[in-house]
Design goal:
Length: 286
């Protein structure tokens, strides 16, 4: 066959494929929303920066003691009217068993961070395609919680005036809370609503239950947030309704992820190709 010359304006009509770079706004948005493999250096930097920002903002919120105590009294009255104000009973019952309450103090202080980071690492290694979306849920949950801390200062039960709650960390001299003992000056005392111990633990639990393949591990995923709820109440760090606030923040986080990715994080592909420059080729005619 002889050489065929194709004019530029005739490329599409003659069925010659040519690369089209997605430079439009819609194409850019589509690429940003597409699942991709996470980059380790970026994730470490992002998590460190996010936690630093979270701590800075949370602790910079004005400690409005009067408002925080007034809100605590209101929460307590509401729970009494609802018939769920059993935090004091749970607090005293657990405090009577030294080994149990000391264990809960350390649980409260450590697992909140250890388990959450562990789940993030597991997602990064085993479910890279779902990592970014699931991480977005966590970050959005935490972000809206900061707004709650600012708008609604709330004293934990152990700081209520005239109350009979026991600060288990102080009584048993254990390091169990950034808001008790020698560490109390390093953290905002009145950021109890919403409870991120619940927000983060339920995020961990749902993620493990949805993605783990081993049955007993999935069961642990459900047990973890339930046990966390008992711990935050038994140590007098939160009311039941603080947990409801944490769940509301988590629902917001999932809503953000679904709005951005178009589906729940767990429904996305487990593995995606390595990130690279994408081109869309218009197919030629047969």
């Amino acid at each position: 066959m002889g050489d065929v010359t194709v004019r530029t304006g005739e490329r599409l009509e003659n069925g010659v494929p040519h690369p089209v770079t997605e430079t439009t706004g819609k194409g850019l948005l589509r690429r940003l929303r597409a699942p991709r493999r996470p980059r380790l250096w970026f994730e470490i930097l992002l998590i460190a920066l996010s936690y630093w920002t979270y701590s800075l903002v949370r602790n910079a919120v004005p400690e409005q003691r009067t408002a925080a105590l007034r809100n605590a009294d209101w929460i307590w009255r509401v729970e009494q009217q609802l018939g769920i104000a059993v935090e004091e009973t749970v607090n005293h019952a657990v405090n009577s068993v030294t080994w149990l309450v000391v264990g809960m103090n350390y649980y409260y202080a450590t697992l909140h961070f250890v388990v959450t980071l562990g789940v993030l690492v597991w997602l990064y290694r085993s479910h890279p395609g779902r990592y970014a979306a699931t991480r977005l849920v966590l970050f959005a949950t935490t972000g809206v919680a900061l707004v709650g801390y600012y708008l609604y200062p709330l004293a934990p039960p152990r700081l209520m005036t005239g109350g009979h709650f026991i600060d288990t960390v102080m009584v048993h001299e254990t390091w169990g809370s950034m808001a008790s003992g020698d560490l109390k000056n390093m953290s905002n005392q009145y950021a109890a609503m919403p409870s991120m111990h619940i927000g983060w633990s339920v995020w961990c639990g749902l993620t493990i239950f949805a993605l783990a393949s081993v049955p007993w591990v999935r069961v642990l995923g459900l047990v973890y947030p339930a046990l966390t709820l008992v711990v935050i109440v038994a140590t007098a760090n939160h009311f039941w309704l603080d947990a409801v606030g944490g769940l509301a923040c988590l629902a917001f986080g999932y809503g953000v992820a679904v709005a951005w990715y178009g589906s729940l994080p767990y429904a996305l592909p487990r593995v995606v190709p390595c990130a690279g420059r994408r081109r869309v080729w218009l197919p030629g005619r047969a």
